[in-house]
Amino acid sequence: MTATTCIRNAAWVAAWDDEIQSHRYVREADVVFAGNAITFVGKGYSGPADNEIDGRGLFVMPGLINIHTHCMSEPVGKGIVEEVGNPKLYMSGLYDPKPLFLAAHNMDLKEGQQDGLKAACTVAYSELLMSGVTTVADLSMIYDGWLDLMASSGMRIYAAPMYRSARWVTHNGHVVEYEWDEAAGQRAFEDAADFIATADAHPCGRIGAMVTPAQIDTCTQALLHDSMALAKDKNWPLQIHTSQSVVEFHEMTRRTGLTPIQWANQTGILGPNTILSHAIFIDEHSWVHWPTRDDVRLLAETGTSVAHCPSVVARYGQTLQNLGRYLGAGVNMGLGTDSFPHNLIDEMRWAVILSRIAAEDIENLRTSDVFNAATVGGAKALLRDDIGRLTAGAKADLVLVDLNHPSMRPVRDPIRSLVYTAMERPIRDVYVDGILVVEQGKVLTLDYESALDQLDLAQRAAEDGVPTMDYAKRTSRQVSPLTLPLDDT
Ligand SMILES: [Zn+2]
User: Is the pLDDT higher at 108 or at 42?
Assistant: First the structure.
């Protein structure tokens, strides 16, 4: 028999209202779940309960949904990559020099040393859980032990192994070239398809499949067609980085005469199954000034979702310029962290503030818009209506926030307190699939501390590998000097 848990008299609840298709605040309410499903949200629950949680002093909200991050690699870049965008490549860090560190880290993959990769994933999953994320799309690469780690994390995870037909190279730091190997891309696609089918069938029931051709400019049309056919056949989401840099935008207009989004549309890969990661440098972005005004409309008309990851590109001085316009046109928006910090509440703050700055309009975006993106918008992108909301029948993925934490007080509007002040600090307990995975701010399912120790070692190893990877044989300290001069004596 499944146990029933009642969070009794919660001070505040962000409950889902099916009638108006929106979250709504409810005060002094009960949230009840049995097994992995929510059975009641509202006032005055009178049914049975095996466990009672005193909800006074708590805000109960749905677990957050992060639809784009790279858990295997990004954590190793902390303290290194925040300021290494390349001005001669329109500020992007994608091509040079950030990949030096990640490539050195990913060497583990080739050499069969999985410890650094597992440590990075463990740190990322732990930090996501502790900041209230219960579902994540992890765009990593396949390595031994990944599936077991996803299952044991207790988190809801979309396995999204990336593959591509070409890789980026620069020999001089101002031109990006493409090294094509179509056969390798096809093999990697087939491996990914096998892997995600196994992941999707995992008995834990929390792992999903995502078809992930890596980038719009690195995949052949044939590979994209195969990818889309698989996604449609299985009804799996497909995600691809698109309109993520000025270099990519120019490359696609040079090849095709179309913007990346227009070419994606012509190629037949836009649609409700598809998530475009970033979608920043669209035809109307001021950094590219392409003469058409079709990209946002195409996203809306085709039902394509966008994974908006504001903080990582903001570090390069870049931003999606008008999120309110995307939403107003009817584009479904989800949020992603992409990199560290693995904190979706922080992304909510960046999203709302950057869009107001870029659009020069405080009403461009409201806090409710980013809360929706972090919950039901992400769910829709993942083709689901049973997560990202607190309502009977939804999965029991929920977050208990301590309203007595100083960062939340005075409590007039818990979501605003979270987004503009508190972030992850008051998050007390997190449930995924009805199981407690974070208690009193500590993750129960993963060994966060020892993973941090491993990550220290992995970062040192990655830095040591930089000169051998770099076209100019620079050291890590030359590529990314420390914030202050170091007194080594
Ligand atoms: Zn990404």
Answer: 42
In order of their start, the domains of the chain are: 4-63+390-443 (2.30.40.10), 64-381 (3.20.20.140)
Q: What's this model's pTM, rounded to 2 decimal places?
A: 0.97
Please list the residues that pair with 207 across neighbouring strands: 157
| CA of residue 241 to ligand 1 center, whole Å | 6
User: 228 C-alpha to center of ligand 1: Å?
Assistant: 19
Q: How far apart, in whole angstroms, are the C-alpha atoms of residue 445 and residue 394?
A: 23
Contacts of 242 (CB under 8 A, 6+ apart): 215, 216, 248, 260, 261, 264, 276, 277, 278, 279
Q: Using one digit for the tens of pLDDT, what is the confidence trace for 367-424?
A: 999 999 999 999 999 999 999 999 999 999 999 999 999 999 999 999 999 999 999 9
Residue 312, token pair as written in the block: 């990582």
Determine what percent of the chain falls in helix, strand and coil, rounding each to the nearest 5.
40, 25, 40
Cα–Cα distance between 19 and 37 in angstroms, integer?
20
Beta strand 398-402 pairing with 427-432: antiparallel
C-alpha of residue 212 to centroid of ligand 1, in Å: 11
- Least Cα distance to 238 among 263, 264, 211, 269 occurs for 211
